[in-house]
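Table S2 (text version). Query chain:
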Amino acid sequence: MDEYAPGAEGFANGVVGTLNAMRQAGPQAVAVISVHASPLSDLGSGENGGMNLAIRRLCEGLSLRGVPTDVFVRRDGPGPDEELIAPLSRLVRLPVGPPTALRKEEVRELLDAFTVATVGHAASERRSYRAVHGHYWHGGLVGRQLRDEWDVAWVQSFHTLALTKARAGLPLDAPRAQAEMELATQADRLVAASVSEAKDLIRLYHASRDRICVAQPGVDLRLFARHDGPSLRRSLDIAPSARVALFAGRLEPLKGAQILLDAAATLRSGNAFADLVVVVAGDDSGDGAHDDHGGERRRLERHAARIGLAGHVRFVGAVPHEELADYYAMADVCVVPSLTESFGLVALEAQALGTPVVAASVGGLREVVEDGVTGYLVEGHNSADYARAIADVLEDPERRADMGEEARRRAGRFTWRRAVDRLAAIYDRLSLEGHPTGSPCGYEDEEAAAMIGSAAS
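Corresponding structure-token output:
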């Protein structure tokens, strides 16, 4: 599948003309509900991460297949009421609540109003949809109401799960967990980003395996365009010979950035890794910004200074996704120490650039990283264990190069084409009249079915 490059120059009729045509698209349209996460926002800041990117790439791919999508989000800042994502995909910002960023618990109180606004927008255009796809549990609560209002199929993607996070040791959000339990048993189809997430839906939420479909995200082929690691090193004041460990993602306790800082301090305490530099690409998430330390980034900066890393770590803030390739290519190792991870797009993208990955042995990361081949999977969250794994990658340039080549090959197995094909098949399957036979997802995935089956038995 060719990648679609956004931008006004990409629309044959201009942005306004294409938006007008988009509004008149036929009844194949899908309403995508992403209340708090705009697919056009910069990654690594606020609540913006893999979910935003996945929605954007999927909608771009569906557009290439001729499937229109309307992505409904809550207005939380400046921007036009409508904006194109791709020729057949538009972002619709609904004026629900104050036009500022809100904490997720505050957004929860606005979901009924968001549903009313979505219905009103569709009615104003006499727009009909063949399916509604909710993202995150907030989107699910809206999607459930829209299914009843419009009498269409409801597809649900969670991206993260409250009970999975609680199992990893994070505080349990009981109201969210209860809502997810209801949504998981009521949606027409559940789309999991990994086999691991599918298993959790069965084991923790008692979802029916016959309604679960696995559609793993892919690699953005534009990452393979030209990149300039040496220039980036110079701009960050990193010596050409220094070895670099990269963390990329939202800054919040869930993502485990402190584990990398502690591991780097351990390594730098010996002469063998005195050149090691850590680069942290990302900024506070909503959860990270509202902690008791003035924000997660500020806490991490203070922690780095306390353990002697102040001059050897670069906090670069949120990085536009199209610039992340330079960071992946610059790094000698990418470290993903998340406490839990539904899939692990950062690990996949780093591997696509030939960068070995040291990651937590949790969730979808086990499906992305091949332990001992493309990097290492670390059991538990002990920084000393991470230090040993990072050292194994860094100390032998030949082994690091071999791992990089294997990482690139493995990443090539995950494509947005496959993810889009599967999503389109799910929509088609649910749109069929009557009760057709065959796979409930519209495609066969024997490997995933076997793994999911083991969880259900």
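Notes on Table S2: Confidence is low (pLDDT under 50) at residues 1-12. The radius of gyration is 22 Å.
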